[in-house]
Write a structure and sequence with these properties.
Elements lengths: L1 H6 L7 E3 L2 E5 H7 L6 H10 L9 E3 L2 H11 L2 H9 L11 E4 H10 L5 H21 L1 H37 L5 E4 L4 H13 L4 E5 L5 H7 L7 E6 L7 H10 L3 E5 L6 E5 L3 E5 L11 E6 L2 H11 L2
Parallel strand pairs: 6-7, 7-8
Antiparallel strand pairs: 1-2, 2-4, 3-4, 5-11, 6-9, 9-10, 10-11
């Protein structure tokens, strides 16, 4: 223990808690040569409680102790605990002594080292105060820099969130106005149709005179419980059995027949209208386009003629 005391710099054992410079009971027990460690210190304090008001002596909170361990690493204390094989984890939260508390403690302890060590500790406190006073402007600048750093970090996080939201919008193709597909771009056309279909929350209306099972393949990507109406001609290659099999797994699909439409359309939730330049079964086989129609009057007029 004497060897450890010779190695340690007392100033390294002075921590800042609650805007006060303090020393911990475990370090003082070692410096004062207390054979029973902190028990000796605690007993001395209890016998002289009137000499230890709250500004002389207080117990650390869990958060305060964790901050000290992280900020100062408690190099000397942890090294000593390991050497004495008492473990790294303290059963009780330590007590902290201010400069006045340390001076008072030395007067009530009855160890041979108390008086001599007390002088060294007082000198260390004086040296620490002098150091802080001489460098207070530097400390203020460091705090200001830390505050600016925190602000920059929070600003960058906000920007990252906005950028992610922007990319999400691009990924969902929410800003689609029109898109032209060239011969052979079968998958790209299919992918865009799936994106359009997946936007529906309640209802999808498809107007196409030549639907077949390829159209049903696209509709398997719809959200659950979304109703689908297909408006087609009797020339379409979709059978009653196809409809029954589809409804058994992806309800609900209804087919209605008419021959009044020439172009192809998709209506999503009765508020989004897309004009498709090719039949859904022929996507990507020839050059065609998909355009979003954003005229509410046109959408309402078209829906009114469907009687759905």
């Amino acid at each position: 223990m004497d060897v450890l005391k010779e190695k340690v710099n007392i100033k390294d054992l002075i921590y800042e808690v609650r805007e006060k410079q303090v020393m911990l009971d475990s370090d003082l027990a070692i410096l004062y040569g207390c054979k029973n460690g902190t028990k000796t210190i605690n007993l001395a304090v209890k016998r002289n409680m009137e000499r230890f008001p709250s500004n002389f002596y207080f117990q650390l909170t869990h958060d305060e102790y964790e901050v000290i361990k992280e900020k100062y690493s408690l190099r000397f204390q942890i090294e000593t605990l390991n050497e004495n094989k008492t473990g790294k984890h303290k059963k009780y939260l330590p007590y902290a002594f201010t400069e006045q508390g340390v001076a008072m403690l030395s007067s009530v302890l009855r160890t041979k080292d108390a008086a001599r060590v007390s002088v060294n500790i007082m000198n260390a406190f004086v040296s620490m105060r002098k150091f802080i006073n001489e460098n207070k402007d530097i400390f203020k600048r460091i705090i200001a820099i830390e505050n600016k750093t925190d602000y920059i970090k929070s600003t960058l996080i906000e920007h990252d969130i906005k950028i992610e939201e922007l990319f999400d919008k691009f990924d969902k193709k929410e800003e689609l106005k029109s898109k032209l597909f060239y011969n052979g771009e079968i998958y790209d056309a299919y992918s865009l149709l799936v994106d359009i279909i997946s936007k529906a929350d309640k209802e999808i209306i498809i107007i196409d005179n030549y639907v077949d099972k390829k159209t049903l393949d696209i509709l398997t990507k719809k959200n659950i419980n979304v109703i689908v109406y297909i408006i087609t001609s009797k020339k379409s290659n979709i059978t009653k059995l196809d409809i029954e099999k589809f409804n058994s797994q992806y309800p609900k699909l209804e087919i209605r027949y008419t021959n009044v439409f020439h172009d192809r359309f998709i209506i999503i939730d009765k508020n989004k209208l897309y004009h498709i330049g090719a039949s859904l079964k022929d996507l990507g086989l020839k050059v065609f386009g998909i355009s979003k129609i954003e005229d509410d009057i046109i959408i309402k007029e078209l829906i009114s003629k469907l009687c759905i």
